[in-house]
Structures are given as C-alpha cells and as structure tokens.
Amino acid sequence: MTTAYQQLSATFQRLSRFGHLMAVAVWDMQTMMPTGGSQARGEALAEMGVLRHKILTDPRVGELIQEAEQADLNDVERANLREMLRAWQQASLLPASLVEAKSLAGSRCEHAWREQRPANDWQGFAANLKEVVRLSREEAQLRAEANNTSRYDALLDLYEPGMTGAKLDATFGELKSWLPDLLQHVVEKQAQEPVEQPQGPFAIAAQRELGLSVMTTLGFDFRHGRLDVSAHPFCGGVPEDVRITTRYNQEEFLSALMGVIHETGHARYEQGLPQQWRSQPVGLARSTAIHESQSLFMEMQLGRSREFLQRILPQVCDKLGAQPALEPENFVRLTQRVKPGFIRVDADELSYPAHVILRFEI
C-alpha cells in the first residue's frame, strides 16, 4: 500500500520534472531563442506555470500532508514534509489567474527590456514594468492578509524564510554606519596608486575560452552544465544541468570574467545539492541569501584574492595575450580596484553592498 508520504513524494517529483522543462525553456528564451518566439514562449511558460500551480494546490495534497504528519518518518523525511507544507500553503494563497498573469507580464517585460536597455528607452520599459509591479502588489496583498504581515515581508519570506524588513533595517543600518567612509577612504588611497589599463580589443572567442578555463579551475562540472551568452548574466537550469551565462565587451574583459566567476559560484552550489533529494523540496536551495553568498564569495573574496589572481594570470595571458597591464602586480591592483558605479553586476567588493541596500530602501 502506498503511504501518504510516498504519494506526496511522487507528486513533488512530478512538479520537479515540469520545473526542469520550464528552467531549460527560460534559459533558451534568454540565450538562443529568436525574438519572434517571445510571445509563444511566454504563453507556453505561463501555461506550464498554471499546470504546476493546479497540481500543487489540489485539495488532496493538503489531505495527504495531514495524513503524512501522523506517520513515522525519519528526520530528513520530516524536514521534506515541512517544505511540502510550506510550498502548498504559499501556492494556495494565489488564484491560478494571477499566476498566469504574472508569468505573462514578466516574460513580456524581460524580453522588451533587452532592446529598451541599450536604447535607453525608459518610457517603453516603464509601461511594461508598471504591470509587473501592479501584479506583484496584488500578490503581496493576498500574502500579507493571509500571514498578517506587511506586503514586503510577505514577499521577502518567499526568498528568505523567516527574514523581515525590520531585521534587514538593523543589519543594513549597521553596515551603513561605516561603509560609506571606508569606501571613500579606499577610493582616495587607490587614487595615489596608479594602475595601467589593459589595451583591447579582446576577442569574444578568446574571452569565452578564458571563462571556460577559469570555470575548470573552480571545479565546475561540464558534464552537468554549460556557459552561454545573455543580455544579463544569470544562473539557471537545474542541478543536473546548470546553465550559466555572461555578457562580453570587446574593449575590456574583467566584467565578463568576473561575471563567469560569480555565476560559477551559483552553479557550484547547485551542483553540490544532495543528489538523492533533488526531486524533493528538501533538496532545493531554500535561502536566496545563502545562494548569493556563495556566488559573491567566489567572485569577491576568492576571485579578487591575490593568490587566486596569481593562479589564473597565466590563463589570462595565454588566452588574451601578454601585455604590461597584465604584469602580476598591476593585474592584482586592477582587479582589486574600488570604483563606485551604477551597474550592480560590475560593482567591486566594497560598493556592491551599497547597491543591495539602495534597492532594499527603494
């Protein structure tokens, strides 16, 4: 006789497999899909999202969870059941119509952004963004009313369970008390330490080879993942098939390289998730903060350390060609340079937290 827990495990395995297909479809949409396929792909993803939502919110799932809570389960199974309950409760707060509308609006906005961003077309982007924000507010209101929290905390809990805006206020408040002064001090100090800039152009093919080489150094498993190009670097796919991307600029190579290192941090975390539990909620990455900490550790602490830079410098020279700017000491100074700017993914170790704080406060 199949137990309630076994029936739940089969349901969540089915949801995981549908999620696998959606992840690869999203990766394709953001990397290789011709622009004319955007609307159809967005509709297909929305349809799949609604299907997964209906499976998850079936009343029978709730009944099985209640039955399984009375069963004799081991610690991991008990933790898995708690995650199943959380997923079921969160999904049950939203109607299928809102799930579909959010998916369609998000796809439409992201696709249009790829052309609007380089064209600096804020008005065009804003029209799509307003719909995304409207639907997000509708979702936030439903979740807030059900959980008796603020709208922000209701959405925050989806990505960082247990975290609240008040806790972040305290954490970021402490960071803001000393980060700006330190940032200014370092900028002034480094202004007295001239650094030679690399002279391009740097062929995209050569930059890609460099990225692949550094990914190998970082232990990326190419049997279960790949590197591609997108308008914005991201890590997607599934643990068994992790897809990471970067973007290239022929005039400089560090932004693409650091993008690769950052996304490899995400990918290594995904590839390291427990294989025997990957189709179950307990085997998924639960905390966005932990996930991002792995990518930022790889990029900021490891990737900009003198020891690592010295390790990969021969690969840089081999793929891009030797030049004075790539002498060891200059390469270290170049990579550790602090230079506040408007683009988060290009930020240095010190100014990066300021981007996060600013977005939180907005």
Termini, distance in Å?
Answer: 54 Å
> Which strand-content bin applies to the residues?
under 5%
Summing up helix and strand content along with how strands pair, one would put the structural category as mainly alpha
With helices defined by DSSP (H or I, 4 residues minimum), what is the helix count?
15
Strand order, main sheet: write it out: 1-3-2
- Let me know the number of strands: 3
Q: Report helical residue fraction.
A: 55-70%
Coarse morphology: globular
Write down the Rg: 23 Å
In round numbers, the mean pLDDT is 96
- Report the biggest beta sheet as strand number plus sense, adding barrel if it closes: 3 strands, mixed
Task: Detail the poorly predicted runs.
Answer: none
Task: Output the helix-strand order.
Answer: HHHHHHHHHHEEEHHHHH
Give the tags.
globular; mainly alpha; 3 strands; 3-stranded mixed beta sheet; single chain; 15 helices; 362 residues
Could you write a compact summary of the structure shown?
It contains 15 helices and three strands.
Structural summary, described in words:
The protein is mainly alpha-helical and 362 residues long. The chain is 65% helix and 4% strand. It has helices spanning 4-31, 38-56, 59-68, 75-92, 96-116, 122-147, 151-159, 165-176, 179-191, 204-217, 254-271, 288-302, 306-320, 328-335, 352-361; strands at residues 225-229, 235-238, 241-246. It has a three-stranded mixed sheet, with helices on both faces. α2 runs antiparallel to α5 and α5 (96-116) runs antiparallel to α6 (122-147). The longest helix is centred in the N-terminal third of the chain and has 28 residues, at 4-31. The chain is globular and about 70 Å long.
